[in-house]
Amino acid sequence: MSEITLQGLEKRYGETTAVEEVSIDIDDGELLCLLGPSGSGKSTTLRMLAGLETPTEGEIRIGNTDVTDQPAYERNTSTVFQDWALFPHKTVLENVAFGLKMRGVSTDERHERARAMLERVQMASHEEDDPTNLSGGQKQRVALARSLAVNPDVLLLDEPLSNLDKRLREDMQIELREIHEDLEETFVHVTHDQDEAFTLADRIGIMNEGELIQVGEPDEVYENPKNRFIEGFLGDTNFIDGEVARASEDAVHVETGLGSEIVLPAEREPAVTEGTELTLSLRPETLSIDGSTTSGSEHERPMMADGSAMNAVVGTVENVLYRGSTVRCSVSVGGESVFVERSAGNTETLTAGDEIRIEWNGADVLAFHADGERVTF
């Protein structure tokens, strides 16, 4: 396994910049996920790391070696591709042993190593099979075994699970995580799937428009996103536009289209003043529903155990969507539409037209400036 350093990495195609100023250190044995939407530059970054693309600017180091200008065959890396790229005219065993054959390993040794890898990915009983007869999940396991068989310093995975159905994809995520923990090799995994990144990663690097925006452990980037893009990309949320009505060392009061102020607790003098435009994020899991509106109006704020004020509004249910284990309710509040999720096992049934009360703790609300940058109080 090896440490990886990307320093000022850029890739331009004519006047188009695909990757811009990417710098990151990846630790020995770490599983880093590069996460972002299509066109964010994550696969191009991986291809430069693999030696399949040459950087326009910047440096790539694997261990103590500068590999920036090295071709792929001179780097001890191995890549698992989205389309598996198995040889249809070779058996499963021959596919897994192919990389070792290219490195001049003897027949007995490469078959021994290939069988060990097939055993590891639970494909030992298929060594004589034709790859074209395998299922998608089985092909993915063979491709993974082939890449691991050459004992690479770094394993690169370019959206390897995207062609699998949901259940199989989830199973393979767990399997990949277990393989990484067993082998303790350095993995760099590219995906656009947030759940996949959270399941697999030691750290997540979030990319957008060619830039690496934030790097951190999964809980860190989810709970403390650097900007509005990350907050919206990492999960469903309600974005509510507002304007600061007043601010003090204790709280920031924001006027919104919900028909009442949202109160955010402050631990210090906030860097906002009256009239500052903000976008607030209310994640559905932080919102609770009270089917009764008789417990008080939206202006009567119940108190938390620590003395901080809860926020509360009253709205009308627009529609109810059943999503298996959860139910999503869209609620009209003032001039805004807010969605709330609750467990499908909740005994209280909501229907369109019901008037309900929504409550949340102001400490759970994130705020962003008009340019998308995070505001902390």
Number of domains: 2
**What would you call the shape?**
elongated
Find the CATH topology of the largest domain: Rossmann fold
Radius of gyration: 25 Å
> What ranges have pLDDT less than 50 throughout 5 or more consecutive residues?
294-299, 303-307
Q: What is the mean pLDDT?
A: 90
Q: Describe it for me?
A:
- By secondary structure, this protein is α+β, with helices and mostly antiparallel strands.
- It folds into two domains: about 5-225, 3-Layer(aba) Sandwich (Rossmann fold); about 240-375, OB fold (Dihydrolipoamide Acetyltransferase, E2P).
- Helices cover about 25% and strands about 35% of the residues.
- The chain has helices at about 40-50, 90-100, 105-120, 135-150, 165-185, 195-200, 220-225, 230-235, and strands at about 5-15, 15-25, 30-35, 55-60, 65, 75-80, 155-160, 185-190, 205-210, 210-215, 240-245, 250-255, 260-265, 275-280, 290, 310-325, 325-335, 335-345, 355-360, 365-370, 375.
- Strands 6-7-8-3-9-10 form a six-stranded mixed beta sheet, sandwiched between helices. It has a six-stranded antiparallel beta sheet with strand order 13-12-11-14-20-21. A five-stranded antiparallel beta sheet has the order 15-19-16-17-18, with no helix packed on it.
- The longest helix has 18 residues, at about 165-185.
- The two termini are about 40 Å apart.
- The model is unreliable at about 295-300 and about 305 (pLDDT under 50).
